[in-house]
Amino acid sequence: MVKLTARHVENVAPERKERILWDDDLSGFGLRSYPSGRKVYIVQYKLHGRTRRKTLGKHGVVTADEARRGAKLVQADVARGADPSAERKARLRSPTIKALGERFLKEHVALHCKPTTLYDYRNLLRGVVNPVLGGIKVSEITFADIQTFHLKRRDTPYQANRGVMVLSKMLNLAEDWGLRAMNTNPTRRLKRYPEVEKKRYLDDSEQERLGSVLANMLASGEITRYVFAAFYLLLLTGCRLGEIQKLKWDYVTRTHLELPDSKTGRRRIPLPREGRALIDTLERREGNPYVILGGHGTGHYNDLQKPWRKIRARAGLEDVRLHDLRHTYASVAVMNGIDPFTLKEILGHKNLSTTLRYVHLSDDAVQKAAGQIANRLAATLGSVA
C-alpha cells in the first residue's frame, strides 16, 4: 500500500492481470490497473454488511487529488445512509419516459380503464408527451422538465394539462414500481392552465333547423337512415356518442336501452316512444348485431363525425360538437322541470357535480326566473317608485 499521488500513479506499470492498489492514507480509496494500461480510480465502502465499489473516474481525465476528494464525498454520503453505487446502477437501469408510458398502458390502463381511455392516453403519449419528454430517464426527470413541456404546449392548454395529468399518473406508478424514490413526483406543484368550459346547446330555433336539415339530407340520399337515426337518438336519449354508435339490438327493449357496459359501468337508459318508433324503422343485417350500420360488413357505422361536419355546416351550426347534443338534452330537461338528481340518473353520471356542468339554461329562462324572484321580493317589500 502506498499513497496514490499523481507521480506514483503515472509510474504504475500494467501487468498480465488486473490489480487494485489501495491508498495507505485514505482507507477504501484505490486505483484499478488493467493489462491494457488503463487506470481507473475507485472507492470501496461497506453498507448493510455488503461491500460495494464505485468508479470515480479514469486517470488522465480525473487527477489523483480530484479522485481522492471524490472518494471522501462518497464516504460522507455513505455515512449519511446513501448507497452511491446502487443509485448509479439504478439510474443506468432506469427506463425512459417513453418506455414507462408503454408499461403504463399495458400493465395499468389496459387492465383498469375503458378501451376509449386506453386509446386517448396512447394518442396523448405518442403525439404530445413523447416528442418532448420521451427520451428522459424516469429517475432523472425534474420539475423543470415538466414545466418546460407544459410551457411548450401553452397554445393548446387542454392538451398541456392532460399531458401533465397522464405524466402524474405514470410517475406515481413509477414510485410504486420502485423506479423512483417515494414522494418525488415532479408534477405535483405545477399550476395547470385555466380551461374555458365550452357551454353550447341548441335553442328551439336551432333544433328546428337541425331537424329540417336532417330530414332534407335523408330525403336526398345524402345520409342513410342509420345516420339519421343516430343523430336523432343522441338528442332523444341524451346518450354519449359511443353508446348510440355501438348500440346492439340485444340492448334494446320496448322502454329502455340496457347497456351492459358504458363509461360509468352498466346503464339502463329510458327509451322514449319516439326513439323506439325510430329504431323500429331500421332494418337489421343478418349476422350484424349493431343498430347503427355502415355501408357493409358486420360492424357499426365507424365515423359519425364526418357526416356531422356536413350536417352542422348545412344547418349553420359550425361551432356545435356532437357532444353538445347531450348538453342540449340536459338543458331542455332542466328547463322543463326535471330536477338534477333525476337527470343525473338519466345521463348516467357518477357525481351530481358532473350533471350540473351539463346544465346550461337559456337567457330567457334565466331572465324569467330572476323576474319571478324579484316580483316575490317586491311584493313583500312594497313599491319602490
TrEMBL record:
Superkingdom per UniProt: Bacteria
Gene3D superfamilies referenced in this protein's UniProt entry, alphabetically: 1.10.150.130, Integrase, DNA-binding domain (3.30.160.390), Intergrase catalytic core (1.10.443.10)
PROSITE patterns for the chain: CB, TYR_RECOMBINASE
Family: Belongs to the 'phage' integrase family.
SUPFAM superfamilies named among the record's database cross-references: DNA breaking-rejoining enzymes
Keyword set includes DNA-binding: yes
Cross-referenced PANTHER family: PROPHAGE INTEGRASE, PROPHAGE INTEGRASE INTS-RELATED
CDD domains named in the record: INT_Rci_Hp1_C (cd00796)
Name of this chain's protein: Site-specific integrase
Domain Core-binding (CB): 95-175
Domain Tyr recombinase: 197-371
Keyword annotations of the record: DNA integration, DNA recombination, DNA-binding
Keyword Acyltransferase carried by entry: no
